[in-house]
Amino acid sequence: MSRTTRIAGTARKRGTLLACTAAALALLTTACSGAAAPSGGTGQAAAAPGKDDKLTLTVYSKFTSREYEVVTKALGKLKAKYPNIEVKHEGNQDDDKITQSIRGGNPPDVAISFYTDNLGAWCSNGSFQDLKPYIERDKIDLNQIPDAVRSYTEYQGKRCAMPMLSDVYGFYYNKDMFAAAGLSAPPKNTTELFEAAKKLTQFNPDGSIKVAGFIPTMPFYANMAQYWAPNFGAKYLGQDGKSHLAEDPGWKAMFEFQKKLIDFYGGHQKLEQFKSGLGDEYSADHGFQRGKLAMMIDGEYRTAFIKDQAPDLKFATAPPPVLDSIAGQYGGGFTTGTIIAIPKGAKNAGAAWELIKQMTLDTDTLVELANGLKNVPSTKASLTDPKLKLGDEFKTFLDMYDSGKLVPNPSTPIGDAHLKAVNDFAEKWQAGGVPDLTEGLKKVDQQVNDELAQKGSGG
């Protein structure tokens, strides 16, 4: 499953992934105050444990149920090298609990987070230790990790986390519906996507939507601004580190495309009425799985849901369509993933690093995790390992991962506030609440830049 899958599994909706509360941000920005002096956090790598050393490593993660068992088994593989080290895996520990433990001076030895959104804050305030001394000491070649994945585990050149598994967002389409509509291949650009959506959409006699070719509104399933942005060449921040959405042609093209599709369906209200009859994103009644939606953007984890909940569905996957003017970007898309780090104040930092190396760089461990969790393994070697058994539809995501065209979210000191601002704007825009697109985006820029300036001044 993916990070967003796991959120749903704990009754947390995808929209709230972006809703970083004021209390949580306050904890992030003050996490380093009052914490104990970190083991190995003085710019030097803490020594690795001796083979016969006896100690217990505490690991926090948000994994639960079946996923918890898969990860616990992988963590236990450390015993092959260090037979006297015990790993205590505490599941259902979210970002807030990790931050609180650091702030209180009683952190775990290893922290695993489903989200990359808070990495900038954790790196900049020292909540997660700098891993550079360990990487240099052990001569770790980071080139074995794709560029986009390396970028979402560091902030302003400081590497304070490693990638454990990745999510890649691709394109799903119903093969029977394509055949019935005379479509022989998935769309590669937004013009083709629009034309395919028109051919695949079915209306009831009263004009209401019976089957939607492609739903353009946000938030809905995996429709979020950050998942769409790479397909339009849209960037959150400029080279100066500030928000320039109003000047970025990609954002304008994305929102104009969204409105064009909404108008085709007869307006926002008709789409909302149709969506209200679709099942929850992670239920067996998901719209795509029940034949009510012909095409969609979603993560690689959806392949496992379909196999489990709709095994008779004939579907295929492809890279998401891109804006016509950036045809060379086809084959890429959005990526994010689970991260793993040594918190400030960890009691056994040296042993923690040994565990992190195994969970992020050991091919056998990564393949075992990928097969068990249905995520993309996060090193190039693990992508081609013969023991990787994820199915034909999954190959699209492995190819995208190795394409060199993936784009992650930028890490910032304001957590996910910039993501939330754009998605909030998308909701107003699609509902007709924004009369001027450029002026509306300028207001988003101002909001984000004000928050960035406040953090830059120590606020």
From TrEMBL:
Transmembrane segments: none
PROSITE patterns xref list: PROKAR_LIPOPROTEIN (PS51257)
Stored InterPro entries: Bact_solute-bd_prot1, SBP
Pfam families (alphabetical): SBP_bac_8 (PF13416)
Cleavable signal peptide: 1-35
Compartment(s) of residence: Cell envelope
Major localisation: other
Gene3D superfamilies in UniProt: Periplasmic binding protein-like II
Key words of the record: Signal, Transport
Job description of the protein: Part of a binding-protein-dependent transport system for a sugar.
Family per record: Belongs to the bacterial solute-binding protein 1 family.
Name of the protein: Probable sugar-binding periplasmic protein
UniProt source species: Amycolatopsis samaneae
